[in-house]
């Protein structure tokens, strides 16, 4: 006796499909590209026309004006479309996104204000605001104190210039010359006086 073959589940049943055409080749990725680009054919250097007649120049200028006119017209037609697209994007934003943007703008303004207050407190010039960096008010305050300590003026300021003459000042502001060497006759070489002369 022969037993019947049980039916196959649908997943294993052969499926007859029409053959599909081969897929189009995928776009090459940078990894598939050759390391060196093929050399471009040597292009002939363009000749620039320098001997224009007034009629030729007028003709070229007219062509350029027409081209410019067509571009202005295309821009004028596209401008309302762009504005409508921007309005649609803005309307599509949720209330949470708008609130997030407003909060970020307020936070940035607050951060800038704190930076300006601390800079004014410690005398940090605007060019050095980036020295204060970002962070909390306390962190910026500590950085401002460090900046002020580093660039504090010296404790003894130089006196202002005066027109009053100074007694010991010599012309030319030359240094004090060295003492002249003693070339006199030493006392130990002097002859002893004769006492017995009478």
UniProtKB/TrEMBL annotation:
Q: What keywords are assigned to this protein?
A: Coiled coil
Query: What is the name of the protein in this document?
Result: Scaffolding protein
Organism phylogeny: Bacteria, Bacillati, Actinomycetota, Actinomycetes, Mycobacteriales
Is the keyword Isomerase in the record? no
Q: Which domain of life is it from?
A: Bacteria
Query: Where do Low complexity bias regions lie?
Result: 29-45
Give the residue ranges for region: Disordered.
1-54, 131-198
Q: Report the leader peptide range.
A: none
Q: Which residues form a coiled coil?
A: 82-116
Keyword RNA-binding attributed:
no
Pro residues composition-biased segments: 1-12, 19-28
